[in-house]
Amino acid sequence: YHVSMDALASLCKRRGFIFQTSEIYGGINGFWDYGPLGVELKRNIKESWWKSVVQTRENVVGLDSSIIMHPRVWEASGHVGNFKDPMLDCRETKGRYRADQILVFKHKSNAATLMFAYPEDEEPPRKKVKKMGKQNPDEYEIVPLLDIPVENYDRLVGPDASEAGTLTEPRAFNLMFKTHVGPVEENAAVAWLRPETAQGIFAQFGNVHAVSRQKIPFGIAQIGKAFRNEINPRNYTFRSREFEQMELEYFIKPGTDAEQHEYWVSERLKWYERVGLPEGRMHRDIHEGDALAHYASACTDIMYDFPFGTQELEGIAARGNFDLTQHQNTSGKGLEYYDEETKERYLPHVVEPSAGVDRIALALLCEAYRVEWIPKDGGEVLTADPDAKRAPEGYEARTVLRFAPSIAPYKVAVFPLLKNKEELVGKAREVFEQLNERWNCFYDQAGAIGRRYRRQDEIGTPLGVTIDFDTLEDDTVTVRDRDTMEQVRMPISELEAYVAEKVRF
Length: 505
Ligand code: ATP
Hints:
Blueprint: H1 5-15, E1 18-20, E2 32-34, H2 36-55, E3 60-62, H3 71-76, H4 79-82, E4 84-89, E5 96-98, E6 102-107, E7 115-119, H5 126-133, E8 140-144, E9 156-157, E10 171-174, E11 178-180, E12 190-192, H6 198-203, H7 205-212, E13 218-227, E14 242-252, H8 257-275, E15 282-286, E16 298-306, E17 309-318, H9 322-331, E18 337-339, E19 344-346, E20 349-356, H10 357-368, E21 369-375, E22 382-383, E23 395-401, E24 412-416, H11 422-438, E25 441-443, H12 449-459, E26 463-467, H13 469-474, E27 476-481, E28 487-491, H14 492-503
Parallel strand pairs: 3-13, 7-9, 24-25, 24-26
Antiparallel strand pairs: 1-2, 4-5, 4-10, 6-7, 6-8, 11-12, 13-14, 14-20, 15-16, 16-17, 17-20, 18-19, 21-22, 21-23, 26-27, 27-28
Helix pairs in contact: 2-10
Adenosine-5'-triphosphate is lined by residues 196, 228, 230, 239-240, 243, 245, 312-315, 354-356, 358-359.
């Protein structure tokens, strides 16, 4: 990997992609703000998804449902009863953990020795085992905490504690944020912040179907905020308590589930490649047996190799007609579809691709980040050694975000060669204003031209246009490519077509 999460977080803060929320008050765990560049990146991700899933398909329509819905929606969906994670506390440090994400270092033969617990995405505490137990770590095995009988908890040492017996028993914790609607805080007024956007689609299935006059198969898509009171938010923005989802419910004829599921998995993988996540870093995690919900016939998670491990970006599930059945039964309103060709009436099945905007933004940032060593006198560009403090003799370091041009926050940066030459500045403003009508562009006249290029490299702007003295003579400009750093000369009249081709979705 080219990036440590610390280096990435530091760039994101310095350049205005991501800030800790309400930072001036010390922040609040699991919540993030997107700065001027982050908001553009996220908009481009959402726009690309919307285009690929909704606008270029005649049989998919959009919806924007409210975040707070009737509480019975969440009874019907099963979220009030079942949307729970097992949680446990550390008695000593008061730290809180998801029990299903804790692993335990356990002695293979001596059942009476201490057992060390640690979160699954951290390094196993071999050193700690060696020191405290004075044992050879190879005599230990690693098992999930939930496999340890509760009566043995008194021998467990928690992740940040030194005392045995520091972990409480796991208990179920509902992840939905609870609030009240109206001026009285009584039980009858309890409402929930949605933990997914999908249920808004199912609850409006009847209305949307009636107005859109679609025939099966057809889809309803939605992008919006979702809220989960995650027990431990971690890995930067990867697991947050407020995040954005992009969800499609694709309603299909029962019996076509397997083929439609496979179709959407491959469609979505193509999209990931287009926005800049290479096939080699993407994986399918196919759920089988116990890992599959009882109503689902298939579920594939789309995974990406993050620097902190291979993790889910999107889940694609064939959910049968579980959700529509639940809402029909709970609301008493008929949600059946009438098939005019076969004269049959049925509850459609559904395939649900459900993706997280924030996780995709993070993956794109991880993927795009590079530090390169540029030879001062020409020659081959080197990928920097991440552990080196500075570039070797004769080289200069540059940080570059190699975003796919279609999702880069700014598409073009425009520079007058010198800021104190009125004709250059006037011409540069003219070019900037022309391009900025169509794309998000950046104008910069401060400092040496090389430094201005570097500033744009660091935020991933794919093209730089420089207006120099020749421009005033012949109306041509220099266009610099972020990745190759090569420059071409072209007439201003060809600029728009050139940029359009480069930044196409
Ligand atoms: P995980 O197992 O990682 O908690 P999940 O399987 O519960 O995720 P889904 O319920 O399938 O997630 O939600 C669909 C998508 O929404 C996920 O693939 C992810 O991109 C996004 N998402 C879910 N929870 C979070 C979160 N806490 N922070 C950011 N994105 C999330």
